[in-house]
Design a protein that fits this description.
The protein is an alpha/beta fold. It has one domain: Alpha-Beta Complex (2-enoyl-CoA Hydratase, Chain A, domain 1). Helices cover 47% and strands 11% of the residues. It contains 16 helices and nine strands. The strands form two sheets. It has a six-stranded mixed beta sheet, with helices on both faces. It has a three-stranded parallel beta sheet with strand order 4-6-8. The longest helix is centred in the N-terminal third of the chain and has 19 residues.
Amino acid sequence: MSDEPEVLFEKRGGVGLITLNRPKALNALNQPMVLEIHPQMIEWAEDDEVQAVVIQAAGDRAFCAGGDILWLRNNGLNDRPTALSFFWDEYRLNRYIKTYPKPYIAFIDGITMGGGCGLSVHGDFRVATERTTYAMPETGIGLFPDVGGSYFMPRCPGETGMYSAITGDRLRPADALHLGIATSYTPSDKLDDLLQALVDGDLSSKENIQDILQGFHEDPGQSDVKLLQGQIDVIFRENSLEDVVETLKLNGSKFAQKTLATIEGKSPTSMKVTFRQMREGAKLDFDACMQMEYRIVTQVMAGQDFYEGVRAVIVDKDNEPKWSPDTLEAVTDADVDAYFQALGDQDLHFDGPPGTRA
């Protein structure tokens, strides 16, 4: 086991710099990392020398490929409260980033999925590069787009958030900009210069920071999702996932055929829960979205599909998950309702220091 810290912290000028430091694991987020980042951000919020926080990652492959799902699977099978405590702490960090009193800038260079979106999207600025790949692929492993996906995905243009949530398709930098996941685009070989410009700059206002970022912004090219948005909006505006599937079948375009084939491989339960999650999230504020997500994940960890999905994709790598139920029609409204039930005194709240439920 490496003695290298999994998260690095330093102050450079007016920047509090966070570096995710698990490049061999694609900087996957684990609970110890969450419980290091959150207190450090609290400390910097009170530090007058820190004007803004920048989060980046080591290596050239990933900003953060998501949560450590193998750890979650193993603990969910053997010690569910421990697995749920990760989500509790992670969601509280997501909310702290959303409400952070100082500017927060993420360099989303490389794979940015799942938990990586939670560490970036809720901040003020997200800088994509040519290596950025954005996705919320959770329906493919029996999970759902969490870490605030309930809030930011329904607020993407048209039905692009719903499309991304259901399909988990991997999107490129121009797509991330179109969806609002990224706020600017800078080639990866200029990120060091951009960071130095922030360190040397006046970060006392978001307008000043925006000017610095804009000075390094370049054209990422055409967004495929933007070109397809007319179809996406027609297909995914339906009132049920079954209606979406029927519309895909009737549409018959190459995009519709590809999307239909993609959906057929996902967990039916996860997709139906996700569909409702997106529709509900569009009407809720951020805190309510996070509370809803904790209710959902509590039920997910008590179910079957997440463990089967991770087995198929990560453990055995046969990519042949046996979902239960295995069709959309077999997932009843009552099945879906169960994921959204209040948890009473176990509901997510935001009081107390990181790592506690007090």
